[in-house]
Amino acid sequence: MREIGVAENPETLTTPGPCPDNCPDMTRAAATRLEFRIRPEAKQRILQAADLLALPVGDFVRSAAETRAEQVIRNTASTLVPIDFFEALLRALDQPARPNAALKRAARRRRTVVQPR
Predict the structure, then answer these.
(1) How many other CB atoms are found less than 10 A from the CB of residue 19?
(2) Would you call 26 helix, strand, or coil by DSSP?
(3) What pLDDT, in 10s, does the model give residues 21-63?
(4) How many domains is the chain partitioned into structurally?
(5) How far apart (Å, rounded) are the C-alpha atoms in residues 91 and 102?
């Protein structure tokens, strides 16, 4: 189920801060492996970043991947819309329903197709 969120200015949205303040729980032992290949220059940047935060490389990479996965999941579970659109939607939902011709025909047809118990 998707949720609708409101963003007054979507350009001002921020993502969680870097490790170590936003690291996932590292106290539980890891049970599975995930392996991948990267370019040498990417590996050097990762090693440098992990070193700057005084984190083991595995913890740094795992934390970055977990944080990004949570962000992607969170962003696909909600939709941001401009505030004026959201307010217009709420106003429209607050209005009494006005059936159109097709809905009226369907209601009449239902009475002939579906028999009461």
Answers:
(1) 19
(2) coil
(3) 555 555 567 789 999 999 999 999 999 999 999 999 999 999 9
(4) 1
(5) 23
Distances (CA, A) of 110 to 33, 37, 74: 57, 60, 41
* C-alpha radius of gyration, the chain, whole number: 25
Residue 50 corresponds to which tokens in the numbers above?
A: 């992990």
> 79 with 4: CB under 8 angstroms?
yes
End-to-end CA distance of the chain: 34
Domain carrying residue 69: 3-113
Whole-prediction pTM value? 0.49
Q: Which amino acid type is present at position 98?
A: R
How many Å apart are CA 61 and CA 35, to the nearest integer? Answer: 11
Exposed / middle / buried, residue 81 (Cβ in 10 Å: 0-12, 13-18, 19+): middle
Which of 1, 9, 26 has its CA nearest to residue 81?
Answer: 9
- Is the distance from CB of 3 to CB of 79 less than 8 angstroms? yes
